[in-house]
């Protein structure tokens, strides 16, 4: 992976991204704000399942309101994240936290989509199963872990110690 990261860092695209001093901070800012949008959208969906928010609305209505924000946010995250990886490949691809975050994102996206698909037909007032409520709570924890590991990329050695080297 180190060879790939070093090769990518030497490409003209990576060098261009690195040379525009304001580009990486701008991309990071957009990435961080969009993480908030994705997290809050997912949180609202999970809280509906837990009966803590919008319990008077059908799940499908809550899903239809917040899922588009989440999916569009994930696209923005993919674009800004990919550009950041191209701009700083050695830092990103060499970080254990980056790979943990990517794995958790794949799990989070698939789990959220599955939750939405399976609970969409639930009628208003019908109770959600213990499994559905447990899944919703786990999704909240999962998205918080994704945020943590994303931030931990900058402190990979301090977080992972010898594993990061």
What's the layout of helices and strands?
Layout: H1 2-9, H2 12-19, H3 23-49, H4 59-87, H5 89-93, H6 96-119, H7 130-152, H8 156-160
Structural class: mainly alpha
Number of helices: 8
Distance between the termini: 13 Å
Largest sheet: none
Q: Enumerate the spans where pLDDT stays under 50 for 5 or more consecutive residues.
A: none
Question: How many strand segments?
Answer: 0
SSE pattern, N- to C-terminal: HHHHHHHH
Strand content: under 5%
Q: Would you tell me the overall average pLDDT?
A: 91
Tell me the radius of gyration: 18 Å
Q: Which word captures the global form?
A: elongated
In words, what does this structure look like?
- The mean pLDDT is 91.
- The chain is built from 8 helices and no strands.
- Helix 6 (96-119) runs antiparallel to helix 7 (130-152).
- 78% of the residues lie in helices and 0% in strands.
- The chain has helices at residues 2-9, 12-19, 23-49, 59-87, 89-93, 96-119, 130-152, 156-160.
- 27% of the residues are buried.
- The protein starts with a helix and ends in a 5-residue tail after the last helix.
- It is elongated.
- The protein is mainly alpha-helical.
